[in-house]
């Protein structure tokens, strides 16, 4: 590209050695983030058990994801407004406290409807915590934005890995166990934040309630948010529906499902921390995105084709984890670099939209399987990944900042000359 330069590769090289050299406060927030993300995959291994013990249909059981993600997504739009008035530390603590209360209540539930309701409350706490945690880690970490985001994605990956394993282990005792386990771990995270995260001397900077909604008027952020809606649809087809696809293949116990999705989560963690930085050091972020999304579509199509092979489905889940880990890191980096908006506002706007895609996927996948065919949910997920790819390709001209492209004065002059000539 004439008259332009890229900067993202150098950023990764500079941050590679500093990711582990972080203040205690960053590690406290990262630990709590691991536990928060555990909540996403925690119920995966116990979905069949909940459906069986509480006499619920698969679609009703999948609503455990939907209520959680809908409230998380809607509440995300307001987290920057909250943290801008009471500060990041108080927002994090309130979020953790809300999760402790509703996770405990979910464990004490006697019906699937009660769990669905309490998972919605859990989603509110999750929104307050996750959006604020990302902004806090990026703001407090040493080594720059790229290093901080890799650390955040490592926490996400570790949480997604440990969540199903813990859910499977505790779920083998009772489906209630994972909920109580999360409450205990969140309480530990609460204590860690109180102890290690200092309240900054400066007062929080208030943001307008409308800031995240107006932020979506920025073309780059809007393109990434809509891309994430379809990406998250495919993501949660793989995460939330696959346990039901594995049950007829003989993988039905909580512990066996826990190990399958532990492998998936480990793959997410490894690729988000190690593979993603290697790719973005050599390719532009939009090129990574438009390469990985079609590969995810192919992965889901292969799962659909070999839906009756337990080896093929499990392999597809793990390979999917590797690809999803790359996408998670690159998309998060892209959002943080797409605009000059405050990170908390950009994070709230983007997260508020993307979680809605995940909320739709689980019940839709279950309905497709019940009314069309077993492979249908995975075909739908593959189509969603293709749509996400098309959105990025079409909107690529608006994503120059995402790629670290800085136009020089000479390049601008050349562009003007070309325009005048035309």
Automatic annotation (TrEMBL):
Q: Which residues cross the membrane?
A: 25-43, 63-84, 91-110, 122-142, 149-173, 179-199, 220-242, 254-276, 288-307, 313-331, 352-370, 376-394
Under Pfam families, the record lists: MFS_1
Gene Ontology CC terms, in alphabetical order: plasma membrane
Q: CDD domains per the record?
A: MFS_YfmO_like
The cross-references to PROSITE patterns, in alphabetical order and at most eight, read: MFS
> Topology versus the membrane, per the UniProt entry?
Multi-pass membrane protein
Q: Name one GO molecular function term.
A: transmembrane transporter activity
The reply on keyword Transmembrane is yes
Question: Locate the Major facilitator superfamily (MFS) profile domain: which residues?
Answer: 25-400
The cellular location(s) given in this protein's UniProt record come to:
Cell membrane
User: Which keywords annotate this record?
Assistant: Membrane, Transmembrane, Transmembrane helix
Q: What is this protein called?
A: MFS transporter
């Amino acid at each position: 590209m004439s008259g332009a330069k890229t900067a993202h590769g150098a950023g990764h090289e500079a941050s590679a050695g500093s990711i582990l050299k972080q203040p205690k406060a960053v590690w406290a927030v990262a630990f709590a983030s691991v536990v928060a993300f555990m909540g996403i995959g925690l119920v995966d291994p116990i979905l069949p058990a909940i459906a069986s013990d509480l006499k619920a249909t698969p679609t009703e059981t999948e609503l455990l994801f939907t209520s959680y993600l809908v409230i998380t997504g809607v509440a995300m739009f307001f987290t920057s407004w909250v943290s801008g008035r009471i500060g990041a530390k108080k927002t994090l603590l309130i979020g953790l406290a809300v999760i402790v209360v509703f996770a405990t209540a979910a464990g004490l539930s006697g019906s699937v409807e009660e769990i669905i309701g309490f998972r919605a409350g859990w989603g509110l706490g999750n929104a307050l915590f996750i959006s604020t945690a990302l902004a806090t880690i990026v703001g407090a970490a040493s080594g720059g934005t790229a290093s901080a985001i890799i650390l955040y994605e490592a926490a996400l990956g570790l949480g997604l890995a440990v969540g199903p394993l813990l859910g499977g282990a505790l779920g083998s005792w009772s489906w209630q166990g994972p909920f109580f386990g999360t409450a205990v771990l969140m309480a530990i995270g609460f204590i860690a934040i109180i102890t290690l995260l200092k309240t900054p001397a400066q007062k929080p900077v208030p943001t307008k309630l409308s800031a995240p909604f107006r932020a979506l008027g920025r073309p780059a952020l809007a393109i990434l948010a809509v891309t994430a809606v379809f990406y998250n649809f495919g993501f949660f087809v793989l995460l939330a529906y696959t346990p039901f696809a594995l049950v007829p293949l003989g993988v039905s116990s909580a512990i066996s499902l826990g190990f399958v999705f532990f492998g998936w989560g480990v793959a997410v963690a490894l690729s988000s921390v190690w593979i993603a930085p290697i790719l973005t050091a050599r390719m532009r972020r939009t090129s990574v995105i438009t390469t990985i999304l079609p590969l995810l579509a192919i992965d889901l199509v292969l799962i659909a084709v070999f839906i009756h092979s337990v080896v093929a489905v499990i392999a597809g889940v793990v390979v999917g984890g590797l690809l999803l880990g790359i996408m998670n890191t690159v998309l998060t980096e892209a959002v943080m670099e797409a605009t000059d908006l405050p990170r908390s506002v950009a994070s709230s706007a983007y997260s508020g939209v993307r979680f809605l895609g995940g909320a739709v996927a689980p019940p839709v996948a279950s309905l497709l399987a019940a009314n069309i065919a077993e492979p249908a949910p995975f075909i739908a997920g593959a189509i969603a990944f293709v749509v996400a790819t098309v959105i990025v390709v079409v909107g690529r001209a608006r994503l120059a900042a995402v790629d670290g492209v800085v136009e020089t004065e000479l390049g601008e002059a050349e562009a003007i000359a070309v325009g005048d000539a035309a």
